[in-house]
Structures are given as structure tokens and as C-alpha cells.
Amino acid sequence: MASGGAGDTDDGAGSSARPSSDDGATASQPPAPPTSKPGSVSKSCSGWTHRDPNPGTYGYMSGSYHILTGPYQTCSSVALAENSSKLWYHCSVVNAYGHNWTYVRVAGTNTSGWMSNDNLANRSGASTRC
Questions:
Q1: Helices (H), strands (E): how many in the chain?
Q2: 30: how many CB neighbours lie within 10 A of its CB?
Q3: Of 8, 84, 101, 102, which residue is the least packed, with the fewest Cβ within 10 Å?
Q4: How confident is the model at residue 40, as a pLDDT?
Q5: What's the pLDDT band for 55 if we cut at 50, 70, 90?
Q6: Domain locations in the chain as residue ranges
Q7: Closest by alpha carbon to 117, among 96, 84, 91?
Q8: pLDDT tens-place string over residues 68-85
């Protein structure tokens, strides 16, 4: 399973103001590059929203891994999804460490929770952000 990485202290709250010279002209300093990191991402196992905007999106397990209560390896296990199990994909998030996780439901059951995208294979359909 994908795990969280080293702590990330960049909260993405940089200033968009640029320094100016004494004559009022804008300095020739290029703007900061855009960041792909969300401004404030929870490191909690609970409180993550999910929905199923594209019913019919599914894939299969590439090994046997636990479905978790949140998008982090340290979150509690809901169930074990066996190798080649079909999973219905609801939506995905990027956690605070930059890892992609998908909210899934095991086909033919009501068992659902978060699975690292590293453990998913053969996706059918588009991935939607939660």
C-alpha cells in the first residue's frame, strides 16, 4: 500500500504580492510557480468526503490489500480486498503527502472505504476528484 511520506510543512499559503521598485514599477522578478499541493489537506483518517458521480467506473485489485477508513496507510482497516476483486470506484483524493487514493466499494457488497491507487489495476472509466 502507498504510505504517507515525510511531514509536509508547506501549507500553500504563499503571498501573491510582488515587490516593487521605488519608482512604482513592478520588479522584474517572475511570479512563483503554481503549486499542485492543496492549501490545507487533512492528515486525519475521518472527515473525507466522497461521492459517486460516475457510476460504472470500476477496476480490479492488483494484490490483496486492506480497504481503509481514510486515505492513509495508518488508518483503520474496514476489510481485506483479495487479489483480482472487482471494485467500484467512487472518487479520488490526493492526501497530505501527495499520494492518490480512491474511495471504493467491493462489487456485490456494501463494503467501502479508501484504497491507495498503487493497489488498483485495469481502471474502466474516468477518475473523478471527490
A1: 0, 7
A2: 7
A3: 84
A4: 65
A5: low
A6: 58-124
A7: 91
A8: 999 999 999 999 999 999
pTM as predicted: 0.64
105 vs 10: which has the higher pLDDT: 105
User: Kindly report the CA angle at 6 between 9 and 93, in degrees rounded to 5?
Assistant: 80
- The structural architecture, per CATH, of the domain 58-124 is Roll (2.30)
Q: Are 49 and 130 in contact (CB under 8 A)?
A: yes
What's the sign of the alpha-carbon dihedral 36, 32, 43, 49? negative
Quote the CA–CA distance of 9 and 15 in Å, as a whole number: 16
As a whole-number percent, the residues of the chain with pLDDT over 70 amount to: 64
**What does the block give as the cell for 128?**
473523478
Residue with cell 513592478: 26
DSSP class of 33: P
DSSP helix/strand/coil, 101: strand
